[in-house]
Amino acid sequence: DNGAMDDPLDIPDHLFQKWMQAAIAAGSKNPKLMVLSTASKEGKPSSRTVFSNKFDKDGVVWYTSYESQKGVELSENPRAALLFYWGELSCQVKVEGSVEKVSEEESEQCFKSRPRGNQIGAIASQQSSVVPGRQYLQDKYKEVEEKFSDGSVIPRPKHWGGYRLKPEVFEFWQAQPPRLADRIRYTLAEVDGSQAWKIDRLAP
C-alpha cells in the first residue's frame, strides 16, 4: 500500500512524497525521473524524460538549456505536464501546472554542485540544435575541457538554468485487480476566498 487511496490525504504534496519514498524503498533505479510534456504556441505537443532535482511545497524543479526545444516551447506556452511512473509499485503520478524559471541564485547553486563533466557538457552542447555528427560534439567538448584544464571555476552559461512547475492538478493512479485501477485527482480551487485542494475519485 503506497498511501491511503481509500482515504486520500488532504494535501497531495504529502501523498506524492510518500509514494516517492516507497519507490526508493522498493529499489527503483531512477525514482526521480519524469516525463516532461510541453507544447508549442500552436499546441503541438512534445515529451522527453528529465531528472527532477527538487520537489517541495512550491513545486517541481528541473534544470536544462533555455535554448532547447522544451525551453523554447515553455517561453511560448508556460504550462506543462509531468509524469512519474514507478513500475515497482504499479503506480504513477501526473502533475499539471504553470511553469516559471527559478531564480538566478538557485541556478547558480545547482550548477556549482554538478560534476565538472556535466558543467563542460552544458557549455559544449547547444541542446536540440542540428549538428553534423557525433565527432563535432566530441570536438566541442574537448575544446571546452581544454579551456578549463587549469582547474579554474567553470561559469554557468546564461542559457542554462532551472524551471519550476507550480502544481494545479495532481492525479494519482495505482493498479488494482481486476483492471479497476484507483485514480484520485486533486485540483487546486478557490474556496471561501482562499485556495484549497478539491479531491475527486475518477473511474479507471
Give the topology, please:
Blueprint: H1 12-25, E1 33-39, E2 45-51, E3 54-56, E4 59-65, H2 69-76, E5 79-86, E6 91-101, H3 104-113, H4 116-124, H5 134-147, E7 160-174, E8 182-191, E9 194-201
Antiparallel strand pairs: 1-2, 1-5, 3-4, 4-7, 5-6, 6-7, 7-8, 8-9
Main pleated-sheet profile: 9 strands, antiparallel
Indicate the structural class. alpha+beta
Note the overall shape. elongated
Radius of gyration, whole Å: 20 Å
**Mean residue pLDDT:** 93
Helix content: 25-40%
Q: Count every beta strand, where a strand is a DSSP E run of 2 or more residues.
A: 9
Short account of what is shown:
Helices cover 27% and strands 37% of the residues. By secondary structure, the protein is of the alpha+beta class.
Please tell me about this protein's structure.
This protein has 204 residues and is an alpha+beta fold. It is built from five helices and nine strands. It has helices at residues 12-25, 69-76, 104-113, 116-124, 134-147; strands at 33-39, 45-51, 54-56, 59-65, 79-86, 91-101, 160-174, 182-191, 194-201. The model has no long low-confidence stretch (mean pLDDT 93).
Task: Give the tags.
nine-stranded antiparallel sheet; single chain; 5 helices; 27% helix; 204 residues; 9 strands; alpha+beta
